[in-house]
Amino acid sequence: MESTELVTGRIENKAATTSLIIAKAFGYDHSYLKRKIRNLNCNAEFKQQNFGEVPGIDKENDQLVRKYLITLDGFIKLGMSSHKRKIYSERLNELFTAFRYKQLCIDIDDKLEVAKKQIYIALESEFFC
Q1: Torsion-angle region of 42 (φ positive above 0: left; ψ -120 to 50: alpha; else: beta)
Q2: What pTM does this model have?
Q3: Integer Cα distance of 75 and 44 in angstroms
Q4: Could you read off the pLDDT of 75-90 as tens digits, one per residue?
Q5: How far apart are CA 17 and CA 19, in angstroms?
Q6: d(C-alpha 94, C-alpha 97), whole Å
Q7: CA neighbours within 13 Å on the CB side: how many for 25?
Q8: Which residues contact 126 (CB under 8 A, 6 or more apart)?
Q9: CA atoms of 40 and 61, how far apart (whole Å)
Q10: 41-59 b/e with 16+ CB inside 10 Å = b?
Q11: What do you get for the CA distance between the two ends of the chain, in Å?
């Protein structure tokens, strides 16, 4: 799996991956990983900010599944609770790089949107005043 395929979504303005992607990349059963996320020892606010349950399609068998969007902080918390830390550590740098790249893209997109709005407002006031 290419590192650009690891981080595919966002929660609010944070880059996010999915539980399906993590399960595939790290050799977990997806049901096991979802159960691990549900039982994760952290406060409700942290869970809400870093794990979002969403519907999705499992591309391998075209079935509708419930999956989690997971931020980098959520991924780290999940990795720290894993008995497979060695597997995590081997792929961790690749995933960190993917998260940083995706977050940079999100930040640039957000700044471009703000700049577009400012230009539009400036042009509108220039022509219609």
Answers
A1: beta
A2: 0.63
A3: 16
A4: 888 877 766 555 555 5
A5: 7
A6: 5
A7: 24
A8: none
A9: 28
A10: eeeeeebeebbbeeebeee
A11: 54
Q: What are the beta bridge partners of residue 18?
A: 69
For residue 92, pLDDT over 50 is answered with: yes
- DSSP secondary-structure letter at 41? S
Phi, psi of 95 (to 5 degrees): -70, -40
9 pairs with which residues across the strands?
16
Q: Parallel, antiparallel, or unpaired for β 51-58 and 9-11?
A: unpaired
Joined tokens for residue 34: 């979802």
Residue 44 pLDDT exceeds 60: yes
For residue 10, give Cα distances in angstroms to 13, 18, 28, 106, 111: 6, 10, 22, 8, 16
Helix (H, G, I), strand (E, B) or coil at 60: coil
Phi, psi (5° rounding) for residue 70?
A: -130, 125
Q: Which of 38, 29, 108, 103 is nearest to 71 (CA)?
A: 103
